[in-house]
Amino acid sequence: MNENLAVVILAAGKGKRMESATPKVLHQVCGRPIINYVLEETLAIGAGEVVVIVGHGSCDVRKVLPDEVRAIEQHEQLGTGHAVRVALEELKRFSELLVLPGDSPLVKRDTLKRLIEERRRENAVASIIVTELEDPTGYGRLVRNISGGVARIVEDADATHEERKIKEVNACTYAFDSHALGPALDSLKIDNVQGEYYLTGVVEYMVERGGRVVPVKVPWGEVLGINDREQLALVENIMRRRINTALMGNGVTIKDPKSTFIDHGVEIERDTELMPFVFVRGKTRIGSGCRIGPCTLISDSTIGDGTKV
C-alpha cells in the first residue's frame, strides 16, 4: 500500500475533436468506457487515494466511477495545470502525486509502478513517461539539454519548426514530489496559443531551480491517447489484439484474430474454437470445447460446454 501516494486522473475535457455529445472518456473500447481501463490499472497500485477530475459531462462520468474513487469538479476548464492545482488543494496530506490522463486506456500498472519507483530511486522532483513516434503531430515534444537531461516540454501548438522535428514526446503521465509541485503550479501562466495553464510548464520551472526530472521511456503502443475517432479505432485495434492474445494463451483457438471481435470481460474456456467474423459482447461466458461461427454475434449470453453455434 502506497499510503503517501495519491493518483489524479484527468477527465474534465470535452474532447472537441471527437465531435460527440458524449464525454470523451466515456467512449467505449472493446465494450468498456475508456476511463475504466485507466481506473483498473491505477487502483491496482494500492495508492492512498484515487481521484478523477471531472468537468464536461461530470454527471455521466461520475456514474461509471467505482465507489472507492472520488470525483473532484473542475468548474472552469482552464487546462491541465489548473486541473492538478484543483486536485492538489484537496490532497495536501500526500507527499507523492501520480498524474495521468483518463483517455489513455493502454497504460499498464507495471509501467506506472516503474514511473513511481524511478522518481524515488533518483530522488527526483518528477518522473515522466516518454516515447518516440514517427509522426509526433499533436504531442508535446521533450526538449533535452546539452548533457541529455530533460530541459522542458513544449506543446505542439507552441513548438518552433525545429522543435516539431523532435520525435520524443511526452505521454502526459507524471510522478511528482508534491512539495515541489505546489510552487511550480503557482508559477504557471496563460501565455500560450490555447490560453490554458499547461501542466507541462512545471517541468521547465523545476529544472531551472535545480530539480531533476527523470524520463521513463516506454513503447508507443502503451501510451497512445484518444483525441479523435481515428485514434479511437487505432487504440481499439491494439486492445482487441491484447484480448485475443490472452485468450489464445489460455487455450482458446481463434482462427483469424484480425476478424474476431471480443469485448473486455468476456469469459471463454479452453479448447473452444472461434471462426472468422465472430463478435462476442457484453457479459458473456462460453464454456469449453465449443465451436462458434463463422459470422456469429453473441451478446450477454451463457453458452454451455461442447456447444456448436
Q: Could you characterize the architecture of this molecule?
A:
With 309 residues, the chain is of the alpha/beta class. It is built from seven helices and 20 strands. The strands form six sheets. Strands 5-4-1-6-10-7-11 form a seven-stranded mixed β-sheet, with helices on both faces. Strands 12-15-18 form a three-stranded parallel β-sheet, with helices on one face. The chain has a three-stranded parallel β-sheet with strand order 13-16-19. Helix 2 links the parallel strand 4 and strand 5 (70-73). Helix 3 (80-89) crosses helix 5 (178-186). The radius of gyration is 21 Å and the shape is elongated. The relative contact order is 0.13.
- Give the end-to-end Cα distance, rounded to a whole number of Å: 46 Å
Mean pLDDT: 95
β-sheet strand percentage: 25-35%
Number of strands: 20
The strand order across the widest sheet is: 5-4-1-6-10-7-11
Number of separate helices = 7
Low confidence ranges? none
Structural class of the secondary structure composition? Answer: alpha/beta
**How would you classify the quaternary structure?**
single chain
Large-scale geometry = elongated
For the largest beta-sheet, the strand count, sense and barrel status come to:
7 strands, mixed
Summarize the amount of helix as a percent range.
Answer: 10-25%
Gyration radius over CA:
21 Å
SSE run = EEEHEHEHEHEEEEHHEHEEEEEEEEE
